[in-house]
Design brief:
The complex is a heterodimer of chains A (41) and B (313).
Chain A lengths: L1 H13 L27
Chain B lengths: L4 H13 L10 H18 L11 H6 L1 H4 L14 H10 L8 H16 L3 H4 L5 H6 L11 H31 L4 H11 L4 E2 L2 E2 L1 H4 L3 H13 L6 E5 L4 E3 L2 E3 L4 E5 H5 L23 H9 L11 H5 L7
Antiparallel strand pairs in B: 1-2, 3-6, 4-5
Classes of the chains: A mainly alpha (41), B mainly alpha (313).
Chain lengths: 41, 313
């Protein structure tokens, strides 16, 4: 958590971030693993 | 001697932030993994296995073992069939099944280098590997070389994907056009504290409630270990009116709990504001209890405990 706090603060103190046109939502699709990891009751 | 955690974090993050130029395009997922590799390897192994991927091309090549492990993981459901897992791993090694083996080999070599150090040197080392050394069989403990290597590689991986991938999701969400207001609000907040060489003091970031809310909301929506986490009941228990006999394997998923509409309104939306309510309120406590990204109990995520200061309170 400490790494996240420091890094996010450092980035947004100095920069505005946008998503590169090369990155699509599909690239960031979330693999929930739920359906692969076993039967759900 | 390994430097204090905060110093390491600042040094590595500063190295990376200072490589950013105006309008630069970065593959942040890979970069965040490099940062985590450097930080974790320093604190687990010190000079015996520390990697400097941000500054060394050859270390970056070695780190591919961790950043882009080659091989095939067996499916998670095989946990139900340990005999079958053992059979597949022993008979199909040519497929590169179980990339963990390479990672453990690295941990084993780093530990061997540590064992070969003269005593006057090891007395000054304060790595996690050093702490485990006190439990080694040669010191009257019960852990073998392989067990220590396995512990260290597990800790390494636990601190690698979780942090790097969560950070990637944080930046991705904040960079989406529809969340530009959230990014602006966060920027306004983080600019209220002081920076030295581009990095703030950890104690100061602890006083930023909106940063905390953004991190919590990302951890809620994108728990890196989203799937089933198993527990076996030691004695008969009743869960939601269901009798669970002793010895029953039960499982829960962070994704399900983190997006429970009974606890989180509009559960699929990215809304850091939901966390901007008094921490003493019943609602905050209920959401915090249900946030299961780090799991809970004795088997919860070690990484959360590893951090010297946790933003999730």
């Amino acid at each position: 958590m400490a790494e996240m706090q420091l890094l996010v603060a450092a980035v947004y103190n100095k920069y505005v971030t946008t998503i590169s046109p090369k990155t699509t939502d599909a690239d960031m699709a979330f693999d929930d693993q739920v359906t692969l990891s076993g039967p759900m009751v | 001697m390994a430097p204090p955690m905060e110093g390491s974090l600042k040094e590595k993050i500063s190295m990376w932030v200072n490589t950013l130029g105006d309008r630069s395009v970065k593959d942040v997922r890979t970069d965040f993994r490099y940062i985590s590799v450097d930080i974790m390897s320093r604190h687990l192994w010190g000079d015996c296995g520390e990697l400097n991927t941000l500054g060394s091309e050859s270390d970056r090549e070695i780190s591919q073992l961790f950043v882009n492990p080659q091989g095939v993981y067996v499916p998670a459901w095989l946990i139900h069939f340990p005999g079958l897992t053992e059979f597949i791993e022993s008979k199909f090694q040519f497929l590169g099944i179980n990339p963990m083996r390479d990672i453990r080999d690295y941990a084993r070599q780093a530990f061997k280098r540590y064992q070969q150090l003269p005593k006057e040197k090891t007395e000054k080392i304060q790595t996690i590997g050093d702490k485990l050394w006190t439990q080694h069989v040669s010191n009257g403990g019960q852990m073998t070389d392989d067990q220590i290597a396995a512990e260290l590689s597990d800790l390494f991986l636990a601190g690698l994907d979780t942090t790097a991938d969560t950070l990637t999701y944080v930046l991705w969400m904040l960079s989406k056009p529809e969340y530009s207001k959230i990014q602006e609000k966060l920027r306004d907040e983080v600019r209220t504290i002081n920076y030295h060489d581009g990095i703030p003091a950890l104690a100061d970031t602890d006083k930023l409630p909106y940063l905390d809310a953004v991190l919590k909301e990302t951890l809620r929506l994108f728990p890196i270990n989203a799937g089933s986490q198993y527990r076996v009941s030691k004695k008969p228990v009743v869960i939601y009116d269901l009798n669970v006999p002793a010895g029953t394997m039960c499982d829960m998923q962070a994704l399900t709990l983190n997006r429970d509409p009974d606890v989180f309104e509009n559960p699929d939306n990215f809304e850091p504001e939901r966390w901007m309510i008094p921490r003493e309120s019943q609602r905050f406590k209920e959401m915090n209890r249900q946030l299961w990204t780090f799991s809970s109990g004795q088997r919860m995520c070690l990484g959360q405990q590893y951090s010297p200061i946790s933003a999730v309170k």
